[in-house]
Amino acid sequence: MADKFEPQIIGFCCKYCAYAAADLAGSMRLSYPSSIKIVQVPCTGRIDVIHILKALEEGADGVMVAGCLEGECHFLTGNLKAKKRVKSVSKILQDIGIESERVKMFNLSSAMGPRFAEIATEMTETIKQIGPSKIKKFHDENVIKLAS
What we know:
The chain is an alpha/beta fold. It has 5 helices and 4 strands.
């Protein structure tokens, strides 16, 4: 069954660097797992803890936040704020007994299309090894109980 598991991963990507790197990967016809669903954001600094947790609650097996290279954020410190928030979510997950590796932060420039493809593949492999998220199952069970 582990071979058939195809993880669903949400990738919050900043418009200026990480999203452009993903676009470049596509233009270069580099393959990366189609299970990565990219959400373009103006800056990763706009991603709040609740956005990451909500993505996991709604069924994502993993979340990757990809922003500008450190020190090169178009909004000065947005990627540093995102890094702290991702670290906070990892700690929350660890505290409640869920694998903290389900959430990761990456930094890319717009010219790093091949690296984006590598990161997407690495993230997918990590989540495949961990297995499906228990959060969605727990959420679905409780929704059914409330509906009854």
